[in-house]
Write a structure and sequence with these properties.
- A hairpin with a 2-residue loop joins strand 8 and strand 9.
- The chain is flat.
- By secondary structure, it is α+β, with helices and mostly antiparallel strands.
- The protein starts with a helix and ends in an 11-residue tail after the last helix.
- It contains 20 helices and 19 strands.
Length: 624
């Protein structure tokens, strides 16, 4: 893909995503003129860029949709469910074309505009109100057949004396156009005219022998960028790989500056006199300045990788709308905290997990309107998706007001599938965690939506891959709440440095509440040690035992802010540090998510956030 086409695809995809958001808003408020104008401008802008990129199917779809919204704006056609459905199908077709281009498809390999999309757009322009029972999928992407002579079409030339339809037929693959009559023919001919105009090869300009149209193409692409960008352009596009490399260098510079500060502190223990004392004073000032600037570089670099989760959330309203319609349910999705920022890697990797969670909420959690009314609930169900920043973490919560989870039913199903023994998952919290087991599903028969037992397993795997944790709360008959906790950024993590059994370890500060002193003996409850903290009894768990180290004397406790709080016993707390985390790829160690270097250059093992949130996976032993 050449640079101009790549720039067009990026800009157009941003516009296409915003179009879906506007259309769903318009469905709720059909008289919103501002939204109508916004959709019209988006399709018009994409059409302009597509025309000069020689993308005829994209131009045709955008032009017909532009005609539809021109009619809606002027009152010539009403905002009906058919009009919304037609626009959504057009938006989906545009997004598919842009995705194919982004994935490396050549412009000539793109699918032509489906007849079904053409029909529904024309019907909407004519003001029809009937919605098709089921949208027809777009035609598959195939390479076009070689052009052949088209049969003559008896359509009179336009007012300018040119037969635009015949010109269009001459430049498109054979079999991709079927002439129609009446009002529909007029609308289609108008769209085909635009395609013919943009697809025609540019004539050489006077005084420019051999001119191939590139100059004009660049000029028009600049016009497209100006139309699709904000009034004042203050940003540039940078390859994500370059940002990742810059962040790694910034992190290493911070580590080097910290290590230099430690070495300088050791040097200052000695007495320097005369010129040496002056040099040490200058060195101290220089190291402090280097540390300050490296920290600023680190923060500035991290900011370049941060993106609002709204970029992720804005794709879900249409998904919920269409899936709810397929399942015969009335569901409204509400979104809060879309401006919350998180590492771009997290944003990119959470799309599939959140899709699985939404599909499960719609299929398993939310009841049908009839069942809700019978249970004394409103017919319309509500699903909320919220995000907010909490200390050094980002919380993403998906909650529905459906039927909730039955712990007894979950245990029974897991036992029947051989996933647990008859005494497994004794508490409700452990029973809820069963939904994350590979192969677990409460569906008797798999459907196109769920039932194969892979969706929620994917969710937990993706969350833990990003050093996050997921927790479930549910109330039978009232709904279910999934809470995902993720680090704001992945490469540099605020940690508490601890040691136990001779091992140097780091705990994410996101789960550390406070440090307490442990007594030599504990109150025992059910054979396990318990210590009262601020009036509440908390279980005491050994970090050495949980990680499989040798037992040692652990007299320092760390109160862990998990869904079920507990005290983690360690031998010593060695301070705090922002560490550059290197993921472990060669081997997998239970409970360890990566490695880092301390300011002294010592290798530190980083304990996983999910491991701590889950109470050390239940593989806990008594504190020493």
């Amino acid at each position: 893909m050449d640079d101009m086409l790549k720039d067009f695809v990026v800009e157009a995809m941003d516009l296409a995503v915003n179009v879906e958001e506007h259309l769903l808003r318009l469905e709720r408020d059909p008289n919103n003129k501002e939204t109508l104008n916004a959709v019209f401008r988006s399709f018009h802008t994409i059409k302009g860029g597509a025309g000069f990129m020689n993308l005829p199917a994209l131009v045709a779809a955008c032009h017909l949709t532009e005609n539809l919204f021109d009619a809606l704006r002027n009152g010539a056609a009403p905002v009906t469910p058919l009009a919304i459905e037609a626009a959504l199908q057009a938006s989906g077709f545009v997004a598919d074309q842009l995705t194919d281009l982004s994935n490396g498809a050549a412009p000539e390999q793109l699918a032509s505009m489906p007849d079904s999309l053409e029909r529904i757009l024309v019907n909407a322009i004519e003001g029809n109100v009937d919605v098709p029972a089921k949208p027809v999928a777009a035609a598959p992407v195939v390479a076009p057949a070689a052009p052949v002579a088209a049969a003559p079409v008896a359509i009179a030339p336009g007012a300018d004396g040119l037969d635009w339809e015949a010109m269009y037929i001459a430049v498109v693959p054979a079999g991709t156009y079927r002439p129609v009559a009446g009002a529909r023919s007029e609308a289609v001919v108008a769209a085909r005219a635009v395609v013919a105009e943009t697809a025609a090869a540019p004539a050489p300009a006077a005084g420019k022998p051999g001119w191939d149209g590139i100059d004009r193409r660049e000029e028009k692409l600049q016009e497209f960028r100006a139309a699709s960008a904000p009034a004042k352009e203050d940003s540039i596009r940078v390859d994500a790989v370059k940002l990742d490399a810059l962040l790694e260098v910034a992190g290493e510079s911070v580590q080097a500056a910290n290590q230099a500060a430690v070495l300088l502190e050791r040097l200052l223990q000695y007495k320097f006199e005369g010129p040496a004392a002056s040099l040490m004073a200058t060195l101290t000032e220089t190291v402090e300045r280097a540390s300050r600037y490296s920290a600023e570089l680190q923060r500035a670099t991290l900011a370049t990788r941060m993106q609002p989760v709204g970029r992720l959330f804005q794709k879900f309203p249409r998904l919920v709308r269409e899936l709810a319609k397929d399942l015969g349910k009335d569901v409204e999705l509400t979104i809060e905290g879309a401006e919350t920022e998180v590492d771009r890697v997290v944003v990119d990797s959470l799309y599939d997990p959140l899709v699985h969670m939404l599909r499960n909420a719609l299929d398993h959690g939310v009841e049908s309107p009839e069942a809700r009314l019978a249970a004394g609930k409103p017919a319309k169900a509500y699903i909320s998706l919220k995000a907010w920043q909490e200390a050094n973490s980002v919380m993403i919560v998906l909650q529905d007001d459906g039927k909730g989870m039955d712990p007894a039913g979950l245990r029974k199903k897991a036992f029947e599938k051989g996933l647990i023994n008859e005494h497994g998952a004794p508490s409700d919290e452990e029973a809820y965690q069963l939904v994350f087991l590979p192969g677990f599903s409460t569906k008797e028969q798999a459907t196109s939506v769920s039932g194969r037992g892979v969706g929620m397993d994917v969710v937990k795997t993706a969350v833990e891959k990003n050093r996050g944790a997921i927790h479930i709360e549910s109330s039978l008959g009232h709904g279910t709440r999934f809470a995902i906790r993720l680090p704001i950024e992945l490469s540099i993590v605020p940690t508490m440095l601890v040691s136990t059994s001779g091992a140097a370890l780091a705990l994410p500060m996101a789960v550390v509440q406070r440090v307490v002193e442990l007594p030599e003996t504990f109150m025992m409850v059910g054979g396990a040690p318990v210590l009262k903290d601020q009036g509440r009894p908390l279980p005491v768990r050994s970090l050495a035992g949980a990680l499989g180290y040798e037992n040692c004397s652990e007299r320092v406790g760390i109160v862990v802010a998990a869904p079920q709080p507990y005290i983690l016993a360690v031998a010593a707390v060695d301070g705090t540090a922002d560490l550059v985390i290197k993921p472990m790829t060669a081997i997998a160690v239970e409970g360890i998510t990566g490695t880092a270097r301390s300011a002294e250059g010592e290798l530190v093992l980083v304990v996983g956030l999910s491991f701590l949130m889950d109470g050390c996976r239940g593989a806990v032993k008594l504190a020493a």
